[in-house]
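Re: the request from the purification team.
They wanted to know what the chain is likely to look like in 3D before they choose a buffer screen. I agreed to run a prediction and write the result into the notebook, where they can find it.
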Amino acid sequence: MSENLPIQAVSEDVCVAPQLTPEAMAAVAAAGFKSVVNNRPDFEGGPDQPTTSAIEAAAKAAGLAYAYLPVQGGYQSPEEIAQAAELLKTLPRPTLMFCRSGARSSRLFSQAVALG
């Protein structure tokens, strides 16, 4: 994995990261990831936060599968957890999930795995 990406492994083929930019998608692909999941709602960090559409376009241009599953930091609903579990089953791996700090993506991953 690339040292330029602030990633943390949560399983053998899933990592989490803090907010990524569209410009980071080429490095994500170069690091060997096959898919990206954005767990941060658009504009949560204000108008300077990159939008999911900009990140998705860059991800696809880099050859990555992309999914947008925005969740709140303090609570992920059973439906959101089920959606995350389904994404983890269907997206090509290795997968990189990200949010503001990486914490909610890590929590969402753990809850999705617990579902089976």
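For the purification team: Residues 78-90 form the longest helix (13 residues).
Please add any questions underneath this entry.
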